[in-house]
Amino acid sequence: MAFAWKDWPGRKNNHTSAGADIQTFMTDQCALFARAGEDFRVDVLVAEGDTVAQGAPVLRSRRNPELVLVAPAAGEVAAIDLGPGRRLAHILFFHAPAAGRHVHDAAPARKGGDAAATRALLLSAGLWPLLRSRPFGRVPAPAEAPSAIFVMALDTRPDAPSPRLALEGREEDFACGLRALAGLTDGPVILCQDGGPDIAAADGRCRIRKAAAVHPHGLAGFQLAGLHPAGPDRIVWDIHAEDVAAIGALLATGLIPETRLVSVSGPALRETRLVRCQPGADLRALIFDIVRPGPHRLLSGSALDGVEGRWLGRWHRQATAVADAPRATYPHWFSAALRRAGRPLPIIPTAALDHAFGGLLPAAPLVRALSANDAETATRLGALSLVEEDLALADYVTGASPRLSAMLRAMLDRIAAEGAS
Amino acid sequence: MRGLWDRETVALLLLAAVLPLAVTWLLAEGAAGLLRLLFVLFVAGVWHVVFMLARAQPPSFAGAVTALAIAVLAPIDLGPLPLVIGVSFGVVAGELAFGGWGRNVVNPATVTLAFLGFGFPAALWPSLPVQLGWSVGAVVLIGVVTGVMSWRAVAGAVLVLAAGSPWLATPALTAAAVVLVVLVCDPVTSAATGLGRWLYGLLYGALVLLFVFGWSGASPVRIAVSAALLASLAAPLLDELAIRLWLARRKRLG
Description:
By secondary structure, chain A is of the alpha/beta class.
C-alpha cells in the first residue's frame, strides 16, 4: 500500500539531498538499554564515572559470555541501572569525543574465509545484536546457523531514511560485509533493494531481490515470507544494509562506525531532517529545536511501528514525534463496557487489509488465527516469518484492538516457550 | 495511532454502496416499500438492542444493509407475523448468536430469505423492477473502489452470468445482480483469499445458471437467493482449497 505522510504540515522532502549535506549530530547523552520485558542478564565491565572509548566493551551477556555490548559513543559512563537478577535496564553515557575510539583486533577475521573468526569478532565487537533472527525476532544465539540471511537495502516505512543514501561512499565496506555474512551461513545471502541499479554485485551466494518500494514490501518479514520462510528448524537472519557496511568497516579498520543515518520526522515537528547520530542517541536532543509547541510523544522507529521511549532503539533508524492525543474524555460506563466486551474486535476482510499484508500472505485467515490464538494455523500461514513491526501497518489500518502485533508477540513467545520445554 | 478501517467504517461504506439500490427501489415501490423497510429495520433493531443489553454486543450499521436486503427480496404477500418470525430467525441465528456482525458465518439476510422460502413455499416472491439491475452498477463501483466488496467475487460472478446471458431472461439477470451485491459480496461471509474469492464468484454464477435450467417453476429471486446461500456455505471450503494450493506452491521454498 502506498503510504506517505503527504498531509503532514511540517513535511519537507529533503530525503533526496546528497549524502554530503547530512549533518552529523552526536547527542550529549546516549544509552544502551534493554527493551521492555527483555530478559537480558549482564555483567557490567565498567564502573560509573569511567571514561570509555567509542566501541569499548561495557557489557557481557551472562547467558552467552561471548556476546559483548560496546559503548555507543566515546565518553563517560554516567549511570548504570540494572534490574533484579542483573537484568539490563539501561546504561547512560555522556558524550566526550576526547575519549577516542577503541580498536578491535580484526586481523584474524580479515585474513578471509574464517567464519569462526568473523563470528567471534562480531560477538566481541558488539555488532552481533544488529542481526535479528527469525522465527521469534530476537538477537541470534552465538552458535546459531541461519539457513539464509536477508540484507535489507530497502526501507519503505513512512519517512524512513533511504538505505542508498546511507551506503553512499561505503560500497567497498558493504561488499566486504556481504562476503563476511556469506561466511556465516550455508544458504543464500539475499539483498533486497528497490528497482534501481544493483547496490552490490550478485555472485554465487549473494542474490539480489528487487521489490516494490511501497510499504509493507520493504519490511524484512514479508520478503522473507515470500522467498525463504522461517520455521522452527529454519532460522533466517535479517540485517539492515547500513549495518552490513558497518561490519565491512570493522573488518577493514577494526573500528566500529560512530554513526548511523537516522531520519527525524513526525506531525509534532516543524520540519523533517536527516542526521547521522550514534546508536542509542537521545531522541529529545534530536528534535528539541524543531518541535512544535504542545505536548508530544517520542517514538523510536516510524509512526507505525515505533516504540515510545527516550533512546534510539537497536534496530531503529527513525525518530518520530507524534502529537500527544488530547486526553480522551472519560467514556460513559456503558459504551466502555460494550467496547471491552467485544475484544478482540472483529476485523472485516477488505482490500485495505489485503494491502496491509502486501498481498503476500493470506491476510484474513492469518488475522483470524491470530485473534483466536490458534498457533497451529498461524504457523501454517507463515506467522513465524513475521515480527511485530510487520503487522504494524495492519494494526494502523484496521484499528485492531488488542493490537495484532501484540497478539503475534504473545503467540511467538508461547511457541518459543513450548519449543524450549 | 488508530486507523480507519474498523468494523463500523466498513459497515458505513457498505451502507453507502447500497444507497443507489435503496433509492431506486424506494422510487419504484413508493410508500409501501418504505413501510416494509421501516418494519424490517424495527424488528432487526429490536434484536440488536436485546443482544446489546443481554450480551454486551455493540450494534452495527450493517444491520441496516441486512434490513434493506430483506425488504427488497423477501416474499411480498406474507403477513407481518411470518415476516417478524423470519427476520428474527435470520438476525438472531444468522448473526447475533455468533457474536454480531464480523463474526457470523452466513449472511443474516440470506438466512432470513432461505427460512421464508422453505417455511412458506407458497409465498409469492417479488419481481424486481428492471431499473434495480442498473443501479447495481453504481453499487459495485462504490463497493469495489472503496475495497469493501471484492472485485474478484464480482468478476467471477459476472463472467459466468455473462457467458450464460443468452439463456437468462431479464428478471433472472436482475435478481442475480441484486443478490450479488446485497448478499454475495458481503465481505464477512464471502471467501477471504484471492483465489477463494474468484472461485466464490464463479460458484455463485454457476449455481444461478444451474437453477435457472434445472429448477422449473422457481421465481428468479428465489433462485438467486438459494445460489447465494449455497455459495456462502461453500466459502470456507473454497478458502481452504485456496490455502492448500498456496501452501503446495510454497513447498518448493522449503
